[in-house]
Amino acid sequence: MAEDLLVSGGCKEERYHTLLPQLRSLLAGETDTVANLANAAAALKETFGFFWVGFYRVKKDELVLGPFQGPVACTRIARGRGVCGTAWAENRTLVVPDVDAFPGHIACSSLSRSEIVVPLRNAAGEVWGVLDVDSDRLADFDDTDAACLEKICNLLTECL
After folding, report:
1. What is the pLDDT at residue 8?
2. Domains in the chain: ranges and CATH
3. pLDDT score for 107
4. CA–CA separation, 123 vs 67, rounded Å?
């Protein structure tokens, strides 16, 4: 089952729309947060070949690294700091076409060029974590990524 998750071919939107029901099936019945986040990160990395994809979870007043795929990452991020901390503080998806132009960007890797961060929200709308996706290409993320990754984050929250 797991090796069937790789979605290839088609445009970006088609790959997201094919991946979403596969993720729903993969996550069905599993209530462990770490297991679900790990499988979601792996599925996104395999499907799109992102440079880095992973999750940070809110622990008190900071984001703490969770399951991810890619190079070594920053372990803790303060609220309002960098792209992840800003997305958490503002409770909104951030698409950053050039991370070097983002004030206060935290460079976990000098190879990261663009980034998208999507909040994970509980039923009350409070942020409990973020999905962070980095690319080694400038302006690699757009409204399609934002909309589809938000759907994936909603699915993850529904499964917990």
Report:
1. 62
2. 2-158 (3.30.450.40)
3. 79
4. 22
